[in-house]
Specification:
Mean pLDDT: 83
Strand content: under 5%
Oligomer: single chain
Structural class: mainly alpha
Shape: elongated
Radius of gyration: 33 Å
Number of helices: 5
């Protein structure tokens, strides 16, 4: 008795692989390739954008850093207010240091950056500095009356103002232009 066999499909050998690709399989391959390409693009850094506080006038940045570094050298000659023994001496040191910082901030204003957008950012940053310096003066005045007075600084963008100033300085590679951290 002969063994029954399946009929051979028309036009081909049944042992030959099928040339059809199921739609589902093609879709999965396309999605996987798209995900791989997306993450390769992300990790390449291609979508990275510059921080909105980044100043394009790098010549101004260099000059500002030099101005701030010079002030830092002068501040280094003063005792650290945070480690001063009594409140009156601490207030005097803060007054002297704040005077140096006032001069530094005045020097940062002129000349302004050449780029108008940069000039707006610098004006805002200088305004932040002036508010910070006013808080230092207020603290020194309160120390003369109350040795237990605390340094109070306003907040901006849900951060203390000194952090906002430091972040701007860090974004623009001006480490000497950050707040000095001498208050305590």
């Amino acid at each position: 008795m002969p063994i029954p066999t399946r009929p051979t499909p028309p036009g081909g050998d049944e042992s030959a692989p099928s040339r059809r690709f199921p739609v589902g399989r093609v879709l999965v391959v396309v999605v996987v390739l798209a995900l791989v390409l997306f993450w390769a693009w992300i990790f390449s850094g291609a979508p990275r954008r510059q921080n909105p506080d980044y100043l394009s006038d790098r010549r101004w940045v260099t000059t500002a850093e030099r101005t701030c570094a010079s002030t830092r050298e002068q501040l280094a000659d003063l005792p650290n207010a945070a480690t001063t023994a009594d409140a009156t001496t601490r207030a005097q040191v803060l007054d002297r240091a704040t005077g140096l910082l006032d001069t530094m901030v005045d020097g940062l204003v002129q000349p302004p950056p050449e780029d108008p957008d940069d000039a707006v950012l610098v004006r805002r940053w200088v305004t932040d500095w002036r508010s910070y310096l006013a808080a230092r003066r207020d603290y020194a005045d309160r120390l003369r009356v109350d040795p237990g007075a605390r340094f109070l600084v306003e907040e901006k963008y849900d951060d203390p103002l000194d952090t906002v100033i430091e972040t701007f300085a860090e974004v623009n590679a001006m480490p000497s232009c950050a707040t000095p951290g001498d208050v305590g």
